[in-house]
Structures are given as C-alpha cells and as structure tokens.
C-alpha cells in the first residue's frame, strides 16, 4: 500500500490526566539533544509546542535582536527556501544569503544548477569573515536524495561533515543547523520509489549518526509535520513552516 495508512479508530481523542512535562524543565535548545518519545504537540491549529528543548514563539522584534550581528546562510532545497520566505514575510528578516541546492536524479534530467555544494560554500567562509560576525548556516539533505543508494547518500553527507568540521576549527562561534526530513505524501505509486518515507526516516538516522557529536544542531520536524492539521506534503503550508522557524530561532538564540 503506497499511501500512508490510517489506523482504524483514528484520529482518537485522548484525555491526558497526568500533567505533561512542563516546558520549564526542558533544556535550552543545543547540539546533540536526546530524541524524546514525542517531539511535541500542536497546542491549536497554529502553535506547536516542542518537547525537545526550551523554545519560544518569537516576535518580529525578538527575531531581529536574535539575528543581529549574525550572518544567516541557508543552503539546501525548496523546503529551506520556504523557511527563508517565512523569515522574510512573517519575521521581516531580509538579510539572508541563500544557496539553492537541488540535484535531481532518476528519470528527470540531472540538474545541478548552481554547482555549489556545502563544502564549496563553507570553505569560502574565512577566519577574517567570522572574526566580525557570527555565522549561522542552515543545511538540509532530504527530498532530492530519496533515489540515492545508502552508500552514495553517506558519501554525500560525509563530505559535508568534513566541511563542517573545517569550518568549526576556523570559526568556533559559527553554528550549523541541519533540518531533517519529514514524512510526505505518496499520491502516485512511483513516489514510493523515489520518495519512500521509510527512506527519509532512515536518512534522518544517518544524518544524526554522521553529524552527531561534533556540535551540529538538528532541527527535527518529523513529529511536527506528521501531527499537524495538514496533509503531509513535501511543501507544507505556511503555518507549519512558521513553527519550524520558531524552533530554528530557539536553536540560534537558546
Ligand atoms: C493558539 O495558541 C496561541 C498561544 O496560546 C494563541 O496566541 C493563538 O491565538 C492560538 N491560535 C488559535 C488559532 O487559536
Ligand atoms: C543591532 O546591533 C546594532 C549595533 O550593535 C544596534 O545599533 C542595533 O540597534 C541592533 N538592532 C537590533 C534590532 O537589536
Ligand atoms: C568574506 O570576506 C570577504 C572580504 O570582506 C568578502 O568579500 C566575502 O564576501 C566574505 N565571504 C563570506 C562568505 O561572507
Ligand atoms: C487532505 O487530502 C485529502 C485528499 O486529497 C483532501 O480531501 C483534504 O481536503 C486534504 N486536507 C487538507 C487539510 O488539506
């Protein structure tokens, strides 16, 4: 069955009698946090309450203060470009450098338009650059790699990891955030081949394993997307993207 199956009797209404873990005791958003049983829950249709770390809903002014003196670079696929759009529209943050990386393989013509990968981008950030500004670099490796073999994917992310480690040596104040994949629709049977959700789930595990322990921040939105009130499409609606940005800001300014 290629569609995400729905369990009989769901969605269920639960009455939770014991109190949930209170946000006060969550640790600040940082690198290598343990993965909780649940990443959080939607308080209502517009606000997600993460249980991974202590986050907040940011006002425009707070976001501006958070990103002051920061060079924000976003490098990845169209789902990251959605975050840039939300930063611009919802938070009025305009000063963002973006690198759109979207290789395509399979029956679509291979397209590597910019010819720039993470290592090219990160190696250009010199000691002199990061002595005057804090760099925050947001990366992702997700929906375009569903048809890669495990080995090809691991090679792909391993080179990025080495570039991250070189950057961290040159620029110890820089911060790397990796946005992980989320489950998506599989409307046509072919999509289960190039975009199986199990493959994306496994990619997240590979990314955590390869980049773990070196100080990278993982922006894990799997549960946020799958428990949202929306269908799980590759490009989620803005309400969900905005909540991803709130969590990202909580990692940038814990
Ligand atoms: C959702 O909850 C937040 C925080 O309590 C509140 O500010 C917002 O107005 C609520 N939104 C809706 C649509 O109910
Ligand atoms: C950003 O920092 C500069 C200089 O440190 C300051 O003048 C400016 O008011 C700050 N802007 C915000 C939004 O905090
Ligand atoms: C690094 O600094 C140089 C010289 O100021 C500048 O030309 C270049 O664009 C900077 N690079 C990045 C990645 O910010
Ligand atoms: C989800 O997809 C179904 C089937 O395509 C559609 O009927 C429904 O309106 C969608 N729901 C939302 C919230 O977009």
UniProtKB/TrEMBL annotation:
**Pfam families named among the record's database cross-references:** NXPE4_C
Domain NXPE C-terminal positions: 122-253
Q: Which InterPro entries match?
A: NXPE4_C
PANTHER family in the record: NXPE FAMILY MEMBER, NXPE FAMILY MEMBER 3
What name is this protein filed under?
NXPE family member 3-like
Native source organism of the sequence: Saccoglossus kowalevskii (Acorn worm)
Q: What is the lineage of its organism?
A: Eukaryota, Metazoa, Hemichordata, Enteropneusta, Harrimaniidae
Q: What gene is behind this protein?
A: LOC102801061
